[in-house]
């Protein structure tokens, strides 16, 4: 049994069956192949989980017993060989494609030139003119042994033009090629997808397109990744002490992203949430103290004082007695270093809402559906083999 975000019942049922592992570690290893090929970071994490299970054999729950039996003799392999094969295949494909295109264009040009020349020679020119052309042609062939100098210049010009067009085409698609190459070289797309999302963010050639109950990320009309818009398949885990949000889809980690949580005095409440709405270019309702009275000022998107980014993903705290006003959002887009200033100085953290960078926020807002479960914890459940007690939920 693997943890799913289908609802609170399954979530709690799975958690009760885990006596040694935390849910994140169990999700990471549960569907892996004991003889599979993985990147270095993934292999290290998998071996760490196996060693940890070996330290507490008497405390295993049913799920952990099954996992340990499957992986206690696991021999994971590196991706070096696979990387090399894919690189060679990609290089061969590009070389063949380029050569075929040059040959095709050159053959087309030569064929058209011959057809036009024959047409002019046979239809337009009179007998005297044809004789003059014959003299020039044979004279040239006699001088260089193959073709005339003028024809050689024309061929070179055509080849130069073809090469220039190839360079322009390659330049236009360079970003996509790099991104897809990175994905092709790794059977786990976590870091690669982060790279893609970040580098094509706000590029007019990048689009999020809905296909029925699915959403796809496209670049230059080529599909990079596609996910179903099913809240039961998605799950977000925020870890305050680590400053990260982990994004899961179908029990696999999509990626881990940096996040800012509440500063001292305005801590982000830990607990279970649900995404209840998504607003593009939201109005920010900022609390301010004026003349010893607290007022709420509505700041529209685009205002220099607007500080929550291009998306608001509203969160409902499931155990709250009254509505809360927390949500996932960005930071002031006009302040380039705002995210890092807050992230590395906790005194300048958020007012309680989790903040993430614009490119990840765009991805989550487009891909993650409403009603998706979001869990906020203070720290990871397990660290260095010792259980860490979860902190009590803070008041909203």
Task: Write a short abstract of this structure.
This protein is of the alpha+beta class. The protein is built from eleven helices and 14 strands.
List the helices and strands and how they pair.
Layout: H1 8-16, H2 23-30, H3 40-55, H4 62-71, H5 80-124, H6 127-144, H7 149-172, H8 174-184, H9 190-199, E1 206-211, E2 214-219, E3 222-228, E4 234-239, E5 244-249, E6 252-258, E7 271-280, E8 284-290, E9 293-299, E10 311-317, E11 326-329, H10 338-343, H11 358-367, E12 373-377, E13 382-383, E14 386-387
Parallel strand pairs: 4-12
Antiparallel strand pairs: 1-2, 2-3, 4-5, 5-6, 7-10, 7-12, 8-9, 10-11, 13-14
Keywords:
alpha+beta, disordered N terminus, 11 helices, 3-stranded antiparallel beta sheet, 396 residues, disordered C terminus, 14 strands, 21% strand
Characterise this structure.
This protein is α+β, with helices and mostly antiparallel strands and 396 residues long. 42% of the residues lie in helices and 21% in strands. The protein has helices at residues 8-16, 23-30, 40-55, 62-71, 80-124, 127-144, 149-172, 174-184, 190-199, 338-343, 358-367; strands at 206-211, 214-219, 222-228, 234-239, 244-249, 252-258, 271-280, 284-290, 293-299, 311-317, 326-329, 373-377, 382-383, 386-387. The strands form 4 sheets. A 7-stranded mixed β-sheet has the order 6-5-4-12-7-10-11. It has a 3-stranded antiparallel β-sheet with strand order 1-2-3, with no helix packed on it. It starts with 7 loop residues before the first helix and ends in a 9-residue tail after the last strand.
């Amino acid at each position: 049994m693997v943890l799913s975000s289908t609802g609170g019942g399954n979530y709690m049922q799975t958690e009760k069956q885990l006596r040694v592992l935390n849910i994140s570690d169990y999700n990471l290893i549960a569907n892996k192949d004991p003889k599979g090929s993985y990147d270095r970071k993934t292999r290290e994490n998998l071996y760490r989980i196996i060693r940890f299970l070996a330290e507490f054999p008497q405390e295993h729950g049913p799920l952990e017993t099954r996992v340990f039996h499957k992986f206690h003799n696991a021999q994971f392999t590196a991706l070096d060989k696979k990387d090399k094969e894919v690189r060679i295949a990609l290089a061969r494909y590009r070389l063949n494609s380029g050569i075929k295109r040059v040959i095709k264009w050159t053959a087309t040009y030569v064929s058209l030139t011959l057809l036009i020349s024959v047409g002019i020679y046979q239809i337009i020119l009179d007998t005297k003119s044809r004789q003059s052309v014959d003299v020039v042609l044979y004279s040239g062939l006699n001088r260089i042994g193959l073709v005339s100098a003028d024809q050689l210049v024309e061929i070179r010009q055509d080849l130069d033009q073809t090469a220039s067009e190839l360079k322009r085409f390659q330049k236009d698609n360079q970003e996509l090629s790099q991104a897809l190459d990175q994905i092709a070289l790794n059977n786990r797309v976590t870091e690669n997808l982060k790279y893609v999302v970040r580098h094509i963010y706000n590029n007019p050639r990048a689009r999020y397109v809905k296909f029925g109950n699915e959403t796809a990320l496209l670049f230059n009309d080529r599909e990079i990744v596609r996910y179903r818009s099913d809240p039961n398949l998605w799950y977000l885990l925020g870890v305050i002490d680590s400053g990260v949000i982990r994004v899961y889809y179908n029990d696999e980690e999509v990626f881990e992203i940096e996040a800012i949580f509440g500063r001292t005095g305005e801590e982000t409440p830990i607990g279970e949430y649900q995404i209840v709405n998504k607003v593009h270019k939201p109005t920010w309702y900022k609390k301010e103290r004026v003349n010893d009275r607290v007022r709420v000022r509505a700041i529209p998107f685009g205002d220099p004082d607007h500080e929550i980014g291009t998306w608001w993903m509203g969160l409902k705290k499931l155990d709250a007695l009254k509505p809360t006003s927390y949500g996932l959002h960005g930071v002031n887009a006009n302040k380039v270093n705002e995210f890092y200033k807050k992230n590395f100085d906790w005194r300048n953290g958020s007012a309680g809402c989790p903040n993430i960078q614009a490119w990840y926020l765009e991805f989550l807002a487009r891909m993650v559906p409403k009603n998706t479960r979001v869990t906020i914890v203070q720290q990871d459940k397990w660290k260095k083999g010792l259980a860490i007690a979860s902190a009590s939920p803070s008041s909203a």
